[in-house]
Amino acid sequence: MHDVRATLRALFEAGVAAADPKVIVPRHLPERPKGRTVVVGAGKASAAMAQAFEAVWDGPLEGLVVTRYGHSTPCQRIEIVEAAHPTPDAAGFAAARRILELAEDLGPDDLLVALISGGGSALLTVPAPGLSLADKQAVNQALLRSGADIKAMNVVRRHLSAIKGGRLAAAAHPARVETLLISDVPGDDPTAVASGPTVGDPSTLADAKAIAAHYALDLTDAARRALDDPANESPKPGDPRLAKSRAHLIATPRLMLEAAAREAERQGLQPLLLGDALEGEARVVGKVMAGIATFARDHGQPVKAPAVLLSGGETTVTVKGGGKGGRNTEFLLGLALALDGAPGIAAIACDSDGIDGSEDNAGALVLPDTLARMRQAGIDPAQSLAANDAYTAFAAIGDLVTTGPTLTNVNDFRAIVIDPNRLG
To answer: Is residue 423 assigned to a domain?
Structure first.
């Protein structure tokens, strides 16, 4: 089945390559200003975006971006700071405060270029007044364990921040603000990418409190007081301080899937795009996808084999066990259990940034013999899923996909190959 493994990897690699900042950033350069050009940014792709921007910008340039540890790239004129993700740390806090100060120092003839990508919420941390870094860390941990989707998480984050939810652009007023966004969120909503630091926020404090109540978030007293304080309402669309701020989506999950579809055709597979914004509990989505793939194999609907089902988006994991894993390995283990060794079907699921959750892998592979090999290695797949320990299960059979940081981030990538001839 080596060739199927190579095919699955090629599909993922083609998708990631299409969202490479070196390729996409030069296509979206803003008009040069009369005054200064200051570049700021946050996210897993922000350093690579800064490097790409710096390489083609022919005028004076300065700035600071913050990225995840291990995601830095060398720049000459833009300072790169590394910080923790998904839980904020002191390095990210200090960098975010400096970014806010750079914005506040700009005048009407100046340009602020914001390079924003997924992961920026944790990296761009300036707590609202009355909150400490420890409060923000506690809120982040509660959100990550809650099962809330990324949109809901970011509503809460925006209302406990002094830089998210349009506040960075408001701080730069009256300067012009041009934001280049690499989207990792379902629906490509600019307010949700890194919690929208330069975009007016239509959500409210009341929305944030409702989300906290719905997911029974264990908030600190200071966080609860902050959500009750009208002074922490975020700038809304139409706020005059945001009149000169524009956001541009330069890479999206759909771009990734379309590139993978072209690679699939090159490999002799008929691609079917199921959507770039699929959400839901990872193991449940895996079970649903198993049903679709099995029906396609047996009945030629909605696509005839040899084919590949492509999808993106961001599933969620409600953590109940103490194991290791991310949403992609959990999706795949749910898929494998539902397929139960069914022939003719194989799959890959990976985070496009190269890091699935907080582990060192991008994702993993599923083949018809996956469950059999796990049991041979002493792993009970059902118990592993119950313990949120999919990483260990796939590591035991050597089927983790490890790429290291890809320096982009357009959300999760899933491909399910249906090919009875090669996978009988």
So the answer is: no
Instruction: Give the pLDDT of residue 26.
Output: 97
Domain holding 354: CATH number? 3.40.1480.10
Domain contains 353: yes
CA distance 224 to 235: 20
The pTM of the full predicted model, rounded to 2 decimals, is 0.88
Is there a domain that residue 24 lies in? no
- What are 331-374's pLDDT values in tens digits? 999 999 999 999 999 999 999 999 998 789 999 999 999 999 99
User: Cis peptide before 21, with omega less than 30 degrees from 0?
Assistant: no
Residue 114's beta-bridge partner residues?
Answer: 40, 179
pLDDT in tens, 256-298: 999 999 999 999 999 999 999 998 999 999 999 999 999 999 9
Enclosing domain of residue 137: 31-251
- pLDDT, one tens digit per residue, over 250-261 is 999 999 999 999
The last residue of a domain, from among 202, 223, 251: 251
352 and 403 both lie in a single domain:
yes
- Placement of tokens 């989707």 in the chain: 149
Report the sign of the C-alpha dihedral through residues 55, 58, 61, 65, in that order.
negative
Burial class (CB in 10 A: 0-12, 13-18, 19+), 271: buried
Say if 147 falls within a structural domain. Answer: yes
Residue whose tokens read 């699929």 = 278
As given in the structure block, the two tokens for residue 44 are: 């897993």
